[in-house]
Amino acid sequence: MTKYSRTADRFNSSTIDPAAAEMLEKANRENVPTTWDRFEKQKPQCGFGDLGLCCRNCLQGPCRINPFGEPKEGICGADADLIVARNLLRTILGGTSSHTDHTYSAIQCLKSAAEGKAPYPIKGTDKIKSVAAKLGIETEGKSDGDVALEIALTALSDFGSYSEEPMKWLKVTVSRDLFEKWEKLGILPKNPDREIRTAMHQTAMGVDGSPVNLLLSALKLGLVDGYAGLQMGTDIQDILFGIPSPVKSEANLGVLSHDKVNIIVHGHMPEISEKIVEWARKLENEAIETGAAGINVAGICCSGNEVLMRQGIPLAGNYLSQELAIITGAVDLMVVDVQCIMPSIMKVASCYHTKVVTTTPVGQLPGAQHIPFTPESADIKAQEAVRMAIAAFGKRGPAKVQIPVHKSEAWGGFSVEAITGALSMLDAQNPLKPLVDNIVAGNVLGAVGVVGCNNVKVTQDQSTIELVKELLANNVLVVATGCTAHALAKYGFLSPEGAKKYAGEKLLAVLTAVGEAAGLGGPLPPVLHMGSCVDNSRIGDLLGALAAYLGVAIKDLPVAASAPELQHEKAVSIGTWAVTLGVMTHVGVVPPILGSPLVSKVLTNDVEGMTGGKFYVETDPHQAAQGILNHIRIKRRALGI
Ligand code: SF4
Ligand code: MSK
After folding, report:
1. Mode of pairing for the β-strands spanning 63-64 and 54-55
2. pTM to 2 decimals?
């Protein structure tokens, strides 16, 4: 009897990914606990927490509200609506802080690189031009480095602003109509750090007693996330590392190598993962000298997305596969930075020869080797980490190695610039025209951004795959980011072959016309991988461009967003930003708001009258697909198409 015994049914209800199921069986044999085991031990999960009805905001608590009787108020008198609204705002604050702190690091890296202090060549020349143009920075007669430095200082000035003016980065990015709408609602953010501080204060014991006022702050924090986290983050990272363009790679645990040193990059910060990729290539000979066939870097979570998008590095797995990668026994080193890294990886790594390196001051793990990266020291630190991997390769226990064979072709790199570049092969003057013409003609029914995570409460990848299959069969174009993109990659949705398999007839014809014109020799993949979590801003840019082309508001477009398997606070803050943009946003995991009828009604209904967007909660992916298709059809009718 093994300590963590599971039945075959359990593996099947945990994941639809055959590689993941194989590793769960191996974990079971080897008595290695995984997140699914810990989930079982958490059951039943707390009903008060599930409904958002538990408050710990002061030391008189915790207070709980009974939705079916007494007590109806906490010790201070806070009721269900207030407690749920406060908790939701704190969740969004967690997500927004994560994104803005990530972006702040990227800005510091760009600044240091532009000053010649950090060893990062600034690769995104075209992005320097476009970002400088929107910020009103003169480029004539200046070097790229000088302009990049001005851009970095402008970004920092938003974080350092003490004026009452709204965030500059937001103001220069969005359309006039959106800006004015948010101005009227009183939700335009100023300095992002100040907004986070103020909203945290607002949720403290005995400050804001108005659930509606708290929800307005939630919308404001959604904008902080959107423009000081996602948009600024993507703009800065594209300047540093280049604008992604279509690139072919592979996905799933089968990308790990039997005879090469395997390094996994995991987390979110490309300034770390890019350096690991660079030095893995440069030190390949050292690995060969020690008997390996070379060095293989693969990615997990959004670090994986970042280096796929720009370097074609394969994806090893999404959030729920992070432990499973180590359980292959073939990962020599996992380099982690921030966000979505389960602390459990240390326990799992201790069962194998795998070394773990942490790299940031805020993301440390007891038992890991801490190699603190700074922009200035990145080359030295990356070499140190890669050499650790080479040394660990020799310690692999062959008896413990089992690499699943499963992997699929996966294309990444679909930035807005790459998409419009492909469309410009059909109409150089007016690249969006072919897409819009096909939407008007009904060949493309609409578009949906399917984004977000895995969540152990949902069978891994299942909701995502079921939902996307139905959307594609109904000729809806799908774009993806984050761990959802990993999920779709594993089952062939990011490959041209996937278009033939999954796209409706009309959509396939459009994908084929664009793909052939762009020189791919076949259709575009039916799902376009637009990048990491911060790269959701690319979807916002695309929506903004489509709305401007059509002369309508984003809320009027036949589009939607969906996060079928969200888990992280960041997914909630991204979703809130999408709702402020005017996008109907489906979530496939029930957020902890049902304890408040008021909050539930505002988010799923009333907010539509304010921003044009709303949340749509549906756990069944088939129902969700129908709900999204109905929404798209309603929007089409309203446009008269
Ligand atoms: Fe209880 Fe109010 Fe304190 Fe929350 S803030 S723990 S509801 S007394
Ligand atoms: S990594 S936030 S599990 S998408 Fe961006 Fe994946 Fe969600 Fe983390």
Report:
1. antiparallel
2. 0.97
